[in-house]
């Protein structure tokens, strides 16, 4: 994963969008890759300030390794009131780490921190993980599900080319009360299954892509209280900036496109998404706990 991330930081940052009329939340970002530096650096402050100028005043910083999850927990503690953290081993990370048990112990310890409000991103990824490593990936997914239930925190799922198995595992072991499909990539039929089971669908910049009509169809049928919005920054910058380096500020662009797709009032829609994020992750307010 590190090589992929290093390639991504070489791109030009997407231009600042027109600010939203009301504040909103980026439910999934990787700020350490956008800024490519320490959590307490001026570059990180710039990313967060740029987002706030666009109306994005709260961000969920999401983990994919033990080291980076610690980075995210540190960031959330420093930016108390603006940032919450999720911690986990990414499904591509879990099968290949040198000492899985040691890394999982780090994740479990981080999960106890008050500004860590979700376990993720975990899940299954059959695009990058070969068949011989998938059993280990599935076991890691189940471990993270159990941790989310034990800590009563939201579960953030990465699902790539593995829809059926992700849904099957959730049925097998029981999904946490708050289960989020990060960067939802399924079709209408999968969306219907997720909606019926009470899962949350988080839409990223991919919903704006010309080649993603199925995502827009899924967005159109999803009840408003089961929707989140995210950037997955620095990846998946929305149209018209596809291919650029994404940042949390681009939530403004994505929310506009989503509201238009649903024929919704922009301010009302953005407010509903904010309310959903606070319900799922808890209050972002300084000093708040679950």
Automatic annotation (TrEMBL):
Q: Which Pfam families match?
A: TatD_DNase (PF01026)
Per the record, GO CC terms? cytosol
What positions belong to coiled-coil segments? none
Protein's UniProt keywords contain Membrane: no
User: What GO annotations for molecular function exist for this entry?
Assistant: DNA nuclease activity; hydrolase activity, acting on ester bonds; metal ion binding
Keyword terms, alphabetized:
Hydrolase, Metal-binding
Give the protein name, as stated in the record: Unannotated protein
* Native source organism of the sequence: freshwater metagenome
> What lineage does UniProt assign to this protein's organism?
unclassified sequences, metagenomes, ecological metagenomes
